[in-house]
Amino acid sequence: PLKAQLYVWFSALSLVTKHGGPRAKTGVWAAQLAACTVVRAAFQLVKMRVNEASVVHQNLGQVRAFVRTQGQQLALAAFLAILSNWISFCQQQLAFQWRLGLTRSLHDAYFRGTAYYEVAQGGKAAGAVMDADVRITEDVPKVVTSVAGLVVMLANGLLDMSIFTVFLSRSGRVGQLLGLTAQLYVAVVYVINNYYIPVDYAGITGPVSATMSKLQQDLNRAEQHACTIYALQGGQSEWQAVCRRLREAIRAKLAFFSGQHLNEAFMYFFTTSTFDRTPLFWCSFLYFTSGLLQMLVRQRAGAPRLLDYSASSPEVARGWGMVIRYHGSMVNIWLGAVTIAQAFQAVMLNYASIGRIQALFARLEAATARHPALLASPDSSLIQFDGVHVQTPTGVDLVRGLSFSVKWGESLLLTGHNGAGKSSIMRCLGGLWKVSSGSILTPSATSSGLRGVVYYLPQRPYNAVGTLAEQLCYPEPPPLALADEEELRRWLDYVDLGYLADRRGALTAETDWQQVLSLGEQQRLGILRLFYHRPRFAVLDECTSAVTGEIERRLYEVCALLQISCVTIAHRPALRKHHHQQLVLTGRPADSDGGFSLTPLGGAPAPFGTGCPAPPVHETIGEYLDRRQIRRQKRGEEAEALFSRRARLLGL
């Protein structure tokens, strides 16, 4: 319906004007577009008058004047071609500024806090956005390009209709009526076309965007896991899955073409291909030609002179000039109306993209809202859950009434079977998941994620593309001191990764370390990153599953020396000796205990007080490694002495 189309047009315009970049730059290009559009319309009038003069000179046999008008027509055509190219360039620049502003607005909202994580939570649940990358990189260009085209085509069409309607009004009331009838004809064809041959733009454009997004995601997933797929001989299965997605995309594209084909064919047939055969066209032509005949009759010019081009005839020349002038004006009015109709139809083809961007903005606004359940700890030295009800974004209960606290200097071991909710509790702590009841006291009650006072170390640490020093300091830029190879090697030796500094380009080249390092090396680099940032609390989520027992022991002992409290998610009971208390999740939230139990442990280091000075990192870790080396050397000597004693006893 036209009402819905008006809403789509208004939504598209408001979307780009609200987020469309700096108003100064967009205003400059919009002003140039407006000026060029007015100049183009004016020179269209000049071109029509020159064409009229050319016909007059031709009928009068004025060769020099006729040649001069032909040269003027060529010059005008060249100027209008350059002007049209500049208008196209200004249109592209305006679309670029809108795209820049719209993309920046989406990026600011997407990377604010944990929004980039929350927008996709819930999977297929209502409101979840699984293809934000596609919407930002593909839907935004489509929308801004169509809106820029709408603005230019509207300006050209409205200006042409206005100027040539005024120009045509000089021919009398019948000329005015013909001009208004041409506009009404296009409007009636457009309305009939949309009401009797309707197009479900949401139904034909939405599946195209959705299927192409899923196809791209499948291809990206196959690329990321190519090694594992090859090892499992899963190439055939992945090929079948991609082919299935491709067939879905092709069917959606065919439905898109067939859905709009009849509508566009009807519009093109009645407004373009057969317009010169409509009664309106011939009525206009005959009306202005009849004016020429009347003039000749009044001046007693015979019909033979009307058809005799061998002799000069000022009456015939002026008459045909008038026909070209007014009939050409009527045709230009019709072309302006057709341009406006085509502009509206072009915007409707991006109906789905407009809705997808609006849905992404709505989801981002909801994701960046403050979590009412997160409260700030007064002295940044306490993590506390009080009656928290933990649920997945899809509404599955994991834990009910969860209550525990971890003071700075204490440590907690969180255990339970897979799917019991161990990592989910940490997502609630970081503000990634909202809680339906209870409150969470955190050292920093913001939605900025588990970083700062609380640092999160997952099983597979994230490594950005960059230098080795940037991996150590991520997400902060590396200091100048780490540009020195010896200083970087000193840090890497803390987790036995000093050999990485010997790799070619490790200090200067941008490398995808996610693909270069093994899981064990990535975990050791993540542990080193924890030492470097040195937060008060560290959430360790299975972060030692691929390292040796020595590195695992080093992690907990160095954290105690650096005054870092550990909240560990693990399965192995061997880690109990490094913690003060253990939280066990049973995975049965319907039970009377809510699906959890809290048990105190012994044997962990004593909590450090709030007044303890922060020990220096290098000296602390260096002394620890020296002591460990002395202990290893001493144990080696004791073992060697024991073997020698046993050998002597056996020899006796």
From TrEMBL:
Looking at the record, the residues that make up the ABC transporter domain are 383-613
Q: Name one GO molecular function term.
A: long-chain fatty acid transmembrane transporter activity
Q: Which CDD domains match?
A: ABCD_peroxisomal_ALDP (cd03223)
Q: Which GO terms describe its cellular component?
A: peroxisomal membrane
- For the keyword Metal-binding, the answer is no
For this protein, the parts annotated as crossing the membrane are 74-94, 147-168, 177-197, 279-297, 331-352
InterPro entries per UniProt = ABC1_TM_dom, ABC_transporter-like_ATP-bd, ABC_transporter-like_CS, ABC_transporter_sub-D, P-loop_NTPase
Listed GO biological process terms = fatty acid beta-oxidation; long-chain fatty acid import into peroxisome; peroxisome organization; very long-chain fatty acid catabolic process
Asked if the record carries the keyword Magnesium, the reply is no
Q: Give the UniProt keywords, A-Z.
A: Membrane, Transmembrane, Transmembrane helix, Transport
Q: Give the family per the record.
A: Belongs to the ABC transporter superfamily. ABCD family. Peroxisomal fatty acyl CoA transporter (TC 3.A.1.203) subfamily.
Protein name in UniProt: ABC transporter domain-containing protein
Name its species: Zooxanthella nutricula
Native organism taxonomy: Eukaryota, Sar, Alveolata, Dinophyceae, Peridiniales
